[in-house]
């Protein structure tokens, strides 16, 4: 028996919630929950956790494209069936984790993964670059200013060696959001790739009456740039909106509320790079990432300008930062003026805040460093 | 469905990182509509713009969340993606799976959908990417009846809560994040599936201040594990680190020669509160000064452990930039016991108090952090009936513009101008 469209509510089950997690935990995990004592990264991508019972679990971490198919998941299941008693997990950064309960099971698993070409790269641990968390982009979203899976593939191809090694001063978390909604923690990542629009919304007067609630569209603008207006359609006056262009900062919230205000554009859209955010409370407070490159074009399919910019920042950091220092902590220690110089990023007025609380970010001190910016 | 030329996407098949294009092409051999996904994406690569229409309200009976409607703007050209609705499926806590469960879910998705997925979406759900409206109810029926699983949240709802892996495989978790996440997810099924809020609302559960699930940056209520007694020290293990017998930071830096481990330089001097020192070959910590940043514990996991009196800090109001700019969540309750024994009573009471207030005063599309900012933290804590304490702020205000109230000033605000003028001529 399946769904019966004639009696949709008959026998209906709702609000079951997620299945209980415990049934999916490998036996060694289930038996040692709450008893773990310490862990070590045995080699890049391989973790060992030691329990007070003496048990050990070895975890092999593997990067994935996140945008994956049923076939791919079945292949992952084949590997887990063969090596991990039919269990596996995913991380919040879209890695796969295969767990085994003894050291001698690690190498056969690694060999299995290696035998499948480049489908299962092992890494993403410790002082390296782990998988990029990202959003949907052009594969599913209606508001993106860039693609997601494509730029991520291009960046990870270039940074691959940093995924499989642990040679950086600390971990570097990279994230991509394809618009300012930032589905994900892009706003607090070491390096953030952010899709942005640069043209104000157009107004589709022909459609606005049917698809928008005007007060909502007007209220949606955080800067009051959307205002009530009138327009003539087929000789009839209709109520619509207008946009005060000088006030628009291209957030796209009006389009989300009102489909008759599209703003995406091939030339207008692209990517901004933000740097220096983190989530962890370790040593310094969690911090937001800061805008250092206001715009790079959507040069499909490989976004070479974006890839190059990120590599340059990462390598300047790798060369200069101290052990344990996150990108943002490094930038704050050396000063942002030095950051721009060391990363060879041109400074523009676009990096000077002129939004809310902007004054908090202006320098009210005579303490600064002489860099090439002072002519 | 027709196979499309994809010269731009084909270029994403080279390079060492796994290619979603290769994966999609392979899947298209058995699910031809995937050719249309590739075809439309290729066109987006050419046009440098999305080809999805705005919105489209779809769902299953009785639910207002869990499915995101999406339609192609070129349905004639790409009939396989004419409808391309996303189904969010609630993920098991910490994203552990059995292959039996995953295989079954994949069977259902190949039957009812495009066979394209995200493992996982940023909020944490399993994302099943692309199906037609008429498939939604049959899929939901099979998901609930055959698998006992359910949809996650979308829209102005409680979003599917998420947690770090917690005590399941981490020595630092200060409470059982999985159980808290599971129990509260079950408790609030109605809030997850039926929109009643001004905007989205997220809980996230992290076991320690390392915050691996990024609760502090993206959840309206962040539950972050901590402790209030002393860091547990194994002095013998400290000596092993000093001797270089245990790798610092759990081996996270082994790829580069940073020189011999130096406890003074790498731990004691990097402590943000300078509360540690060596004395007679032993590591000493003035725990009263410790702010539990986790650095020393991270560096020496075999020597140091969080204290045994464990609970969580509760912070409120994180969000990404739209609308009022990005906000981290603000520390409201420094320490709360988080325990399944009393069904998370204290946390539940707090959550519901926040909701009652926010649902009343929050504006449309205003996250709770924005409402807090609009009314001010003093008002928020007054509404929450919480005493102000200095832990809530980084520093006291530097302006003197205090909103004194009528009752706080002797004689109140009502005064007589005529009586005033008798004493002070204009």
Automatic annotation (TrEMBL), chain A:
Keyword Transcription annotated: no
InterPro entries: 4Fe4S_Fe-S-bd, 4Fe4S_Fe_S_CS, DsrB, NiRdtase/SiRdtase_haem-b_fer, Nit/Sulf_reduc_fer-like_dom_sf, NO2/SO3_Rdtase_4Fe4S_dom, NO2/SO3_Rdtase_4Fe4S_prot, NO2/SO3_Rdtase_4Fe4S_sf
Keywords for the protein's UniProt record, in alphabetical order: 4Fe-4S, Iron, Iron-sulfur, Metal-binding, Oxidoreductase
PROSITE patterns: 4FE4S_FER_1, 4FE4S_FER_2
Alphabetized Pfam families for the sequence: NIR_SIR, NIR_SIR_ferr
Span of domain 4Fe-4S ferredoxin-type: 239-269
Protein known as: Sulfite reductase, dissimilatory-type beta subunit
Organism: Desulfofustis limnaeus
From TrEMBL, chain B:
The keyword Metal-binding is assigned to this record: yes
PANTHER family: ANAEROBIC SULFITE REDUCTASE SUBUNIT C, SULFITE REDUCTASE [NADPH] SUBUNIT BETA-RELATED
SUPFAM superfamilies: 4Fe-4S ferredoxins (SSF54862), Nitrite and sulphite reductase 4Fe-4S domain-like (SSF56014), Nitrite/Sulfite reductase N-terminal domain-like (SSF55124)
Protein name in UniProt: Sulfite reductase, dissimilatory-type subunit alpha
Pfam family, one: NIR_SIR
Originating organism: Desulfofustis limnaeus
NCBIfam families referenced in this protein's UniProt entry, alphabetically: dsrA (TIGR02064)
Record InterPro entries: 4Fe4S_Fe-S-bd, DsrA, Nit/Sulf_reduc_fer-like_dom_sf, NO2/SO3_Rdtase_4Fe4S_dom, NO2/SO3_Rdtase_4Fe4S_prot, NO2/SO3_Rdtase_4Fe4S_sf
Alphabetical UniProt keywords: 4Fe-4S, Iron, Iron-sulfur, Metal-binding
Keyword Cell membrane assigned: no
Ranges for domain 4Fe-4S ferredoxin-type: 281-309
């Amino acid at each position: 028996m399946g769904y019966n469209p004639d009696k949709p509510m008959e026998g209906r089950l709702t609000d079951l919630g997620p299945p209980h997690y415990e049934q999916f935990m490998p036996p060694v995990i289930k038996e040692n929950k709450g008893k773990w004592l310490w862990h070590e990264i045995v080699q890049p991508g391989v973790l060992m956790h030691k329990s007070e019972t003496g048990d050990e679990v070895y975890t092999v971490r593997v990067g994935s494209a996140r945008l994956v198919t049923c076939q791919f998941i079945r292949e992952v299941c084949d590997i887990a069936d063969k090596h991990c008693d039919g269990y596996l997990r995913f991380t919040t950064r879209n890695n796969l984790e295969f767990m085994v309960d003894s050291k001698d099971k690690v190498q056969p698993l690694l060999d299995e993964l290696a035998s499948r070409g480049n489908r299962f790269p092992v890494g993403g641990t410790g002082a390296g670059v782990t998988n990029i968390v990202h959003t949907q982009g052009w594969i599913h979203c209606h508001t993106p200013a860039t693609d997601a899976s494509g730029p991520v593939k291009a960046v990870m191809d270039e940074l691959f060696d940093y995924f499989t090694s642990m040679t950086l001063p600390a971990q570097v978390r990279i994230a991509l959001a394809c618009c300012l909604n930032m589905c994900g923690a892009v706003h607090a990542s070491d390096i953030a790739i952010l899709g942005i629009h640069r043209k104000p919304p157009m107004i589709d007067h022909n459609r606005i009456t049917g698809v928008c609630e005007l007060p909502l569209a007007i209220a949606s603008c955080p800067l009051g740039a959307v205002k009530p207006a009138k327009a003539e359609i087929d000789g009839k006056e209709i109520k619509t909106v207008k946009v005060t262009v000088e006030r628009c900062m291209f957030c796209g919230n009006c389009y989300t509320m009102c489909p008759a205000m599209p703003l995406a554009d091939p030339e207008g859209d692209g990517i901004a790079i933000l740097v220096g955010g983190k989530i962890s409370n370790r040593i310094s407070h969690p911090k937001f990432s800061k805008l250092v490159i206001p715009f790079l074009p959507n040069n499909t399919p490989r976004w070479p300008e974006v890839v190059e910019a990120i590599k340059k920042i990462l390598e300047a950091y790798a060369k200069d930062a101290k052990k344990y220092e996150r990108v943002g902590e490094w930038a704050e220690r050396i000063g942002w003026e030095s950051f721009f110089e060391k990363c060879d990023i041109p400074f523009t007025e676009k990096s000077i805040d002129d939004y809310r609380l902007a004054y908090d970010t202006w320098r009210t001190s005579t303490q600064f460093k002489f860099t090439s910016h002072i002519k | 469905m027709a196979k499309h030329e994809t010269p731009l996407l084909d270029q994403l098949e080279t390079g060492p990182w796994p290619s979603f294009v290769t994966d999609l092409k392979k899947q298209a051999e058995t699910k031809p509509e995937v050719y249309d996904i590739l075809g439309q994406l290729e066109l987006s690569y050419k046009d440098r713009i999305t080809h999805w229409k705005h919105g489209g309200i779809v769902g299953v009976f009785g639910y207002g969340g869990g499915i995101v409607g999406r339609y192609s703007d070129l349905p004639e050209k790409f009939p396989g993606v004419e409808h391309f609705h996303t189904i969010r499926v609630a993920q098991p806590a910490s994203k552990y799976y059995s292959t039996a469960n995953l295989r079954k879910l994949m069977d259902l998705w190949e039957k009812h959908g495009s066979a394209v997925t995200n493992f996982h979406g940023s909020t944490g759900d399993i994302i099943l990417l692309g199906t037609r409206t008429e498939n939604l109810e049959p899929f939901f029926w099979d998901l609930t009846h055959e698998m006992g699983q359910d949809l996650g949240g979308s829209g102005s709802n409680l979003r599917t809560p998420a947690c770090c892996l917690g005590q399941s495989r981490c020595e630092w978790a200060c409470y059982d994040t999985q159980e808290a996440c599971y129990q509260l997810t079950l408790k609030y099924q109605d809030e997850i599936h039926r929109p009643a809020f001004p905007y989205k609302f997220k809980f996230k559960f992290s076991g320690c201040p390392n915050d691996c699930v990024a609760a502090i940056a993206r959840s309206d209520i962040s539950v972050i594990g901590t402790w209030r007694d002393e860091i547990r020290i194994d002095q013998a293990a400290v000596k092993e680190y000093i001797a270089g017998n245990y790798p610092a930071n759990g081996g996270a830096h082994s790829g580069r020669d940073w020189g011999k481990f130096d406890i003074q330089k790498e731990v004691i001097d990097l402590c943000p509160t300078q509360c540690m020192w060596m004395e007679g070959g032993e590591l000493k910590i003035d725990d009263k000064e410790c702010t539990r940043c986790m650095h020393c514990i991270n560096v020496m996991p075999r020597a140091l452990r969080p204290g045994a009196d464990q609970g969580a800090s509760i912070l409120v109001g994180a969000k990404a930039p739209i609308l009022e700019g990005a906000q981290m969540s603000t520390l409201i309750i420094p320490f709360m016991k988080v325990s399944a024994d009393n069904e998370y009573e204290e946390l539940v009471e707090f959550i519901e108090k926040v909701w009652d207030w926010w649902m009343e005063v929050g504006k449309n599309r205003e996250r709770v952090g924005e409402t807090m900012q609009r009314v001010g933290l003093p008002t928020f804590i007054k509404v929450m009936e919480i005493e102000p304490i200095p832990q809530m702020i980084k520093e006291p205000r530097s302006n003197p513009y205090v909103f004194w109230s009528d009752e706080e000033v002797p004689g109140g605000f009502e005064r007589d101008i005529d009586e005033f003028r008798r004493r002070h001529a204009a």
